[in-house]
Amino acid sequence: MKRSPINGWLSRNPKESKPSASLQKPSGVRHNPSGSPERNHKQALQAARAAWGKTAGKSQGASSSQGPAVKPEQKQNKTDIAGPETEAPSKVAKSGKWRVKRRMLLWSALLLFLAGTSFIGLFALWVRGLDISKLEHPLPEPSFVMDAGEQPVSQLSSSRIIPVPLEEIPADLKNAVIAVEDRRFYEHAGFDLWSIGRALIRDLQSGSLKEGGSTITQQLAKNLFLDSDKTLSRKVKELGYAIKINFAYSKDEILELYLNSIYYGEGRWGVEGAARQYFGKPVKELTLAESALLAGLPKAPTLYSPVKNPDKALERRNLVLSLMLEQGTIDEATYAQTVNQPIALKPDNGESLKGRYPSFVDYVMDEAERLYGFTEQQILTLGLRIHTTMDVKVQQAAEEVYRTDALFPAGPGDRPVQSGVVVLDHRTGGIRAIVGARGDQVYRGFNRATKLKRQPGSTFKPLAVYGPALERGYTPDSLLYDGRLDIGGYRPSNWDGQTRGQVTLREAVLRSWNIPPVWLLNEIGIDAGLDYVRRAGIDLPEKDRNLSLALGGLSAGVSPLQMAQAYGAIANQGVMERAHAITRITTKDGHPLVEAVPQRTMLTAPVHAYTMTQLLQEAVAVGTGQAAALLDGRPTAGKTGTTQLPDTPEFARIGGNGAKDAWFVGFTPELTAAIWLGYDKTDQNHYLTTSGGAVPAVLFREIMTRALKDVPVTPFPVPDEVLAAQQAQLQAKPSKRQNMYRDEEDRKPKREERRAKEERKDRKSDD
């Protein structure tokens, strides 16, 4: 049946068909129920057209400016064209496509639902199987440092944890911890989606897993059950443990466990130990400022340490206070009053860590962190067995010497002369002993044997000048210039103020003259010296590319450890073994975690190392290092070094009678040692006298005498190349007997000639 044009028009113009009553009862047309359908239809059609004409006329008048009005016939024709007979096929096609899409969406949603349900179920089963029983006994297990003989020599432990109930912990401390570590702690289920999302965005921006996004519950899980690797698998495990902990313990119980087990630096776990360490009081007596400082430590205990980095600690504390203000746990007045308070530490000295062999143990911890990625907390809590190269006999010998005040310059009473020594086995690179300070040593204090950087003075000459010169054909008998020298404004002078015109390289080493090595470095090139020093394991900045390199005039300086490693290469026939203290790290059950791999490089040819060893032997035997000679006749080689006081008005009255640093670096066939002596801060009241410059050589002699007691005396090894050359020289030289026969043959004609002359004289006299 064909669609009515009126109905089609109404369906396309619903807003213009409002007067529906006129369509039911058109004006001027009477209702005729008995009339024919055809007549009724015509009457309705006429009435509709009349009504449409009125409406269209109004519309045409209102929109005459927009163009001519559309005629009804045109509208009707369009409606007829868009009738149901033409629209039906497209609607059917669209309906079929929608049904296919809807079916696909339903199946996809179902599959996603099943996959998600399966994952959640498997994850829940995995979480359920996690073991968190350690939370019932969260105290860490001590680790042990083992010596070269596999014997424990020092314990690393956090066993001084003093658990305190949450009720005794100040509200300010709890609020501070929550503000800086996990502001939605009491709202989430062990993990915070907001924090995870924020961390994920930052990780994507940086291209690495740097951001943590960990809640307090996750940190507790990580500290007790996991390592600190920034890996996805570790984060998933952390999340699982956090969820299980959150269901097994109340929020207050979790917070109490966290505050009693987290690491606060300076060898302290738990808020009670930290409060006593930093402020000398129990945790319940902490002020708001003190609480905020402690709350900021767990993120980076060393970086924000108020002992080592007070400025960063203050900045971190004030950040915690600002977060507390932002979260409404303190008001504006309290914040303003507290943020301006300085950090006031009152450590409990009776609780400072005084373990065995602190300098060596401190370096072991540094090496474990730097080379093998362990954290301080892991070292002190995981029950590790750290196997090292320590020789207890050598370590005790060094510590005994450093306790003997009579061997050191007296100095002013307020600050003693300080010193540091490293002793290593140059054949393996294993460090046998370290002493980093005189007097009492605290846990992870400043280690002058490994961390101090000072100018090495004349001890640098064999590395920067004489070593590379030997490689370029110079010999101990080569003549070097020793006169007035001015190279680009640089004017070195000898320590005695004299010049000698020319001296041999051997004499320059024995007497430690300054002008010859500067002249020689200029001859062979500064790059040659820098390259040799780099091969010796010492990287220098570009600013050290100048002739003062010859005399050890470095911008930053070197440590005793670096100098011991470099001289050890000379003692080891030119082969440098990387200095190290750790050989391996295992669990308490012996499961291997780390195995050290030897690292060796070639410093110089064995023949050149042997020549340098002979020169340094002479320096100890008859040169400036005679105080280092061992009394048992053991072969000893080495070099002294001193650095001048700064050329400032402060030291003008002292002149040349003082020094800033004094060194001795030397070796025997068994051990190499480097010793530095000086003040942490040099001023007009704290400096070394000229007599104090010989002290490091004395310390070397005393340490080696004790360390090598009962060790057989042996000579320095001779390289095969040198042995072959000596053998060839011996074969080329005739023996004394051969020389005697040869001389006899040479003299025989002369004797006969003299005899003939005498006979002729006799005959003449007879005549």
How would you characterize this protein structure?
This protein has 767 residues and is α+β, with helices and mostly antiparallel strands. It folds into five domains: 5-82; 153-351, Penicillin binding protein transpeptidase fold; 386-454 and 561-723, DD-peptidase/beta-lactamase superfamily (Beta-lactamase, 3-Layer(aba) Sandwich); 455-557, DD-peptidase/beta-lactamase superfamily (Beta-lactamase), CATH 3.40.710.10; 734-766. The chain contains 26 helices and 15 strands. Helix 17 runs antiparallel to helix 24 (695-707) and helix 18 (461-471) crosses helix 21. The longest helix has 46 residues, at 84-129. The radius of gyration is 46 Å and the shape is elongated. The termini are far apart.
Cα gyration radius (Å): 46 Å
- Cα end-to-end separation: 184 Å
Total domain count: 5
**CATH topology-level name of the largest domain:** Beta-lactamase
Number of strands: 15
Total helix count? 26
The CATH architecture of the largest domain: 3-Layer(aba) Sandwich
Largest sheet: 6 strands, antiparallel
Describe what is shown at a glance:
Keywords: Carboxypeptidase, Cell membrane, Cell shape, Cell wall biogenesis/degradation, Glycosyltransferase, Hydrolase, Membrane, Multifunctional enzyme, Peptidoglycan synthesis, Protease, Transferase, Transmembrane, Transmembrane helix. The protein is of the alpha+beta class.
Outline the secondary-structure elements:
Blueprint: H1 5-12, H2 20-24, H3 37-62, H4 72-81, H5 84-129, E1 143-146, E2 152-156, H6 171-181, H7 193-206, H8 216-225, H9 232-248, H10 251-261, H11 271-279, H12 288-295, H13 310-326, H14 332-339, H15 358-372, H16 376-381, E3 385-388, H17 392-403, E4 418-425, E5 430-435, H18 461-471, E6 479-482, E7 501-504, H19 505-511, H20 515-524, H21 526-535, H22 560-571, E8 575-577, E9 582-586, E10 592-595, E11 600-602, H23 606-621, E12 637-644, E13 658-667, E14 672-678, E15 688-689, H24 695-707, H25 720-732, H26 736-766
Parallel strand pairs: 1-3
Antiparallel strand pairs: 1-2, 3-9, 4-5, 4-14, 6-7, 8-11, 9-10, 12-13, 13-14, 13-15
Helix pairs in contact: 1-4, 5-9, 6-12, 6-13, 8-9, 8-10, 12-13, 13-14, 17-24, 18-20, 18-21, 18-23, 19-23
